[in-house]
Amino acid sequence: MQITRRRLLSVLSAAGLLAVVPVGPASAAAGAAGRARIVANTVAVFAGTADSNARPETAAKLTAVERTARVGLKAMDDAGEGELFAGLVLGTDEANLNTAYRRLYEIALATRTPGLPPDLYGSTAVQRRVLDGLAWLHEHYYGDQSKGYYGNWFHWEIGISQHVSKTLVLLADAVSAHRPDLLPTYVASMDAYLRNGTGGDVDLDSRFHTGANLADITTNRILQGALLGEPGEARIRKALTDQLTVFATIDPYHLDHQVTDGHYADGSFIQHSSVAYTGSYGKGLLTRVVQTLKILDGTGFAHGEELVPTVYGWVRNGFAPLIFEGWMMEIVKGRAVSRPDSGYTDVAVVVEAVVDLSSLASDATATALKSYVKHVRATSRAPLDPARFVSPLSVVRYADILADASVPPADLNPAARSVAFNAMDKTVHRRPGYAFALARSSDRISKYEYMSGENLMPWFQGDGAYYLYLSGQDQSRAYGVDYYTTVSPYGLAGVTAPVEPRRTVPELYGKPYYDNPDHPLHFTSSSESQNKYVYFPRGTSGYSGGAVLGAYGAAGMVQSSDVAYRDRALLPDDFVVYRAATATKSWFLLDDEIVVLAADVGDDAGRAVTTTVDARTAAVGDRISLTGALRDGRPWTGPGTADLRWLRYANATEGTAVGYVFLDVPEVRVALDEVTRSRRVVRTANSDTAVTRSVLGVTVDGAAGARPARLAYALVPNADEARLRAHRHGPLRVLANSARLQAITHTGLGLTAANAFTQGRHETAGLRVDGPASVIVRREGGRGGAVRVAVSDPTMGRDTVTVLLRGRPLRRATGDPEVRVGKAPGGTRIEVDTHHAYGRSFTVTLGE
């Protein structure tokens, strides 16, 4: 297939990508050599080489490959009549069929892995047994298109094809010698099962062929093309062209194929159209594209070095801010938050990709990636196990990086960093000693993700839920699946929720989805209506975003009901909808404090509401203390309900503490309970394992029928009592807290920050903001020093935002070209062009 410059320009936006795929066909000899190299590279990636596998560092990996293969062979030996593997029932469960193909791949892998015993490595008998198993599965359960494609589309279009394609590559010689018919037979069937494509190929207009899913499908097709001989080259080139679209930065104002899945300019990553997904599908995409770069290395089909800067940008701006001391933050994991694998396991996957990317990079980029690998290993509270890496080659590269004394450990984040992932409604704020992660939602981004019985109680995870990670702590004891298991879904930290019980999707409808195919909205397991109203519903408010000024941040959100409640008149009578409580919230992100303001806290339906200041978990038996002071200054120890000025929660066993300063809050209810629940309450596939945790709940209650309330408080990570007492006369002050305007000032930092939520003029502390906006102003060096200003449009719909700084006129020193500065009556007028900025912060520095 000819790849024209015009075609590439139409699908790629990142600079330097035009030279990735050579234009025009290669010679027959070059094509044959390239296809052979793809096969050889793939075998090396997954099985290793004689040299890599002779290294002592790969011994554990080889042991794991051998053990898995022998378990699979034993299950084949024990299979009964009509079984391929003992106990694995086929014919109605597509996940079991996928498992069968995975097991065949694992056995095939052992036969190509140097260093394993000769009854596995190079065993013709075992290889033929695998190929006979492939033939049997095709004959009985896969080849009949009229009986296939039940259940989850992913297994049919991606999962099974992935295992089959890799198995055929690993056993390419054995296929030719023993069952040459398998290759064309399986390729034809895999094409036929690509039903969300067009003509058995990728369809870039399909919502199923985007992001990580597209990378998986196209990598499968590259491997298939390498095996098909010269006719397969067209498949390879088409797959490469399709896969290149995932490297393009998403421009929400000029969507290619109407696809919103992928990486955004601010580091956000979205999958499933509206789900913040860096920590799950994002790491899958990272893994797949780096593997593909290794598979294509030296083949002549692509110049992968042109793509390395783009992938490096993903790591630096998208992944690194979300990884804290080796832990992947919860806010970007979608339904995967309910899985038993920890955030440390997630990061190990990222580390392997970074290790391999460093081998493809050069000079400073390679050094930065290697330094980051060392940093993650040095700061993680859980040991990183390279035996869980996919590739033995990665294990060796990882060992070489650790042994290289010339590479110092170094984070890709500065020590102090505030990041507004406004394209996916998430915020991360980092300081030495802690990291704060905030999950927002809007009419652009889903409130949560539920699917396939995973994340059964997700209802408030995007309603301002936040996570405060403390340095030095094992985060699996604070968060992860056990946090969602033991903390009430109505009492997640940061959430305002109505006091009203909700039921999970399986409880409501008797199955993992709402089934009503005859309704005009056509509810099936993978229909667009299912996505919109059940799996990942969006909110209905357009205000969600915030500004960043250097290492400081502001974020705001107007809480809303989801689209199902809005569209309840269109939905079937038996479809259950829930109404959200009301709240307008801001988070101001400083050095020692995270300040939270909430206004219009209540419920239009008159229900009682709760607002959770924090929810923290600890191991039972940890030495926990609760101390504080009442508003009148008397000391207080919890738990209980009281009119508190401040509270301190300390875990002496972990050596951690969090302080809470109640700036303007009614009585606070503090609970410390021992909670035991099964992990199955959050995911049907989890083992029925009872988990017990000590759970702190700091909550403000609103009575049914009460007038809307306002709250103002500060989280103070790692605080001692002296610091909390000092806040009584400290530098922090709330300037405004209403549904129109929320603002604070910190005299010690010379900083004022405001979120304006409505149309009209908003005035506070020498600052005037016209219309909805997020603004941060900081005077550096005291009176007469430079004044820095950051402005963002959290609605993402304004063309211009205007701010007036009252006082003596200031002149522009430096700043973004979109910012215009001029004199105005009473001060300095700042006008910011926010047209199509998608929440980006614009900054300017002013002087006398």
UniProtKB/TrEMBL annotation:
Gene3D superfamilies: 2.70.98.10, Chondroitin AC/alginate lyase (1.50.10.100), Polysaccharide lyase family 8-like, C-terminal (2.60.220.10)
Domain Polysaccharide lyase family 8 C-terminal: 733-802
Name of the molecule in the record: Polysaccharide lyase family 8 super-sandwich domain-containing protein
Organism annotation: Streptomyces atriruber
Domain Polysaccharide lyase 8 N-terminal alpha-helical residues, every copy: 59-374
An annotated Gene Ontology molecular function: lyase activity
Signal peptide residue numbers: 1-28
PANTHER family noted in UniProt: HYALURONATE LYASE (PTHR38481:SF1)
Family: Belongs to the polysaccharide lyase 8 family.
Calcium among keywords: no
Annotated InterPro entries: Chondroitin_lyas (IPR008929), Gal_mutarotase_sf_dom (IPR011013), GH-type_carb-bd (IPR014718), Lyase_8 (IPR038970), Lyase_8-like_C (IPR011071), Lyase_8_alpha_N (IPR012970), Lyase_8_C (IPR004103), Lyase_8_central_dom (IPR003159)
Polysaccharide lyase family 8 central domain location: 420-720
Domain of life of the native organism: Bacteria
Pfam family, one: Lyase_8
Keywords: Lyase, Signal
